[in-house]
Amino acid sequence: MESGEFKHNGTTLHYEIIGDGEKDVVLQHGFSDFSGCWGPLPGLLAEKGYRVAMMDARGHGRSAKPADGYDLTTFASDMMGMVTHLKLNRPVIIGHSMGGSMAARAAGSYPDLLRAAVLIDPVFRDMEEKEKLALIEPRKDAYRNLKRMSHGEIRAATRRKHPAWAETYIEAGAMGKVYLSMDIFKVYASFDVGWREDLAGASCPILLVTADPDLGAIVLPETAEWIIKQHKNVEVIHVPGVGHNIHREAEAVVREAVFSFLERHF
């Protein structure tokens, strides 16, 4: 494992690399997580000959916590700054939630720099301002409470919320909350803005992984249906019985889908 920092958009950003293969993959975490939240997937990809790069988004993990830059376009620009800094060769970007939206923004804005993208329940939903506020304020309060807790207390709270998660995800999820800046909530304003334009501008193959909205997944069935009708470069895999954290709750299913997709596009 190699780790380092680079500066982009005036902010120092932390990254990690595992593997020394010639096939480049980027793993981009979701909101309030960090690069350590991917469990065994980076190591398994490295064993298959991939070089895996992971960046802590600004305000997250070991990256700097500036007062501004918390919008999806800047986040995607930061991620592509890592691609340039590390001289990655047309990587496949795999992102969860906010990271999936970052991958979509990158695919639409930098189409020549990506080989393909995997979007794991990205924020592809149209929300009114009132709906956003209804989501943000209770979540802010919950995170403020977490920030007052010790690491052990955060771990216990994470275990209570996600009793089925493997221990590696519990520990990493707790560390993500320890690291985060409350300024990250500013990104909510741009979370769901422009995703149709991102898909319209993307020419690379895209795998969209969805789950059950009744269990907390974001992408609705009708949204996924509309996407595949409009965009021939997008394929959809639906994973039933799990919610938003698909790669944590259906680890083997997502892993096999990702491996198959990568093999087809390298």
What do these coordinates show?
By secondary structure, the protein is of the alpha/beta class. It has one domain (2-126, 190-265): 3-Layer(aba) Sandwich (Rossmann fold). It has helices at 41-47, 72-85, 98-109, 129-147, 151-161, 167-179, 195-201, 221-230, 246-249, 251-265; strands spanning 2-8, 11-18, 23-28, 50-55, 92-96, 116-120, 206-210, 234-238. The chain has an 8-stranded mixed beta sheet, with helices on both faces. α3 (98-109) packs across α7 and α5 packs across α6. The longest helix is centred in the middle third of the chain and has 19 residues, at 129-147. The two termini are 23 Å apart. The mean pLDDT is 96.
Q: Trace the largest sheet across and list its strands.
A: 1-2-4-3-5-6-7-8
Instruction: Using the coordinates shown, work out and report the CATH topology.
Output: Rossmann fold
What is the helix fraction of residues, given as a range? 40-55%
Radius of gyration: 17 Å
Structural class computed from helices and strand pairing: alpha/beta
CATH architecture group name? 3-Layer(aba) Sandwich
Strand content: 15-25%
Shape: globular
Count of individual domains: 1
CATH level-4 homologous superfamily: Alpha/Beta hydrolase fold, catalytic domain
Straight-line N-to-C gap: 23 Å
The low-confidence parts are none
State the major sheet: 8 strands, mixed
Number of helices: 10
Q: What is the name of the CATH class?
A: Alpha Beta
Overall mean pLDDT: 96
What is the β-strand count? 8
Element-by-element helix/strand order: EEEHEHEHEHHHHEHEHH
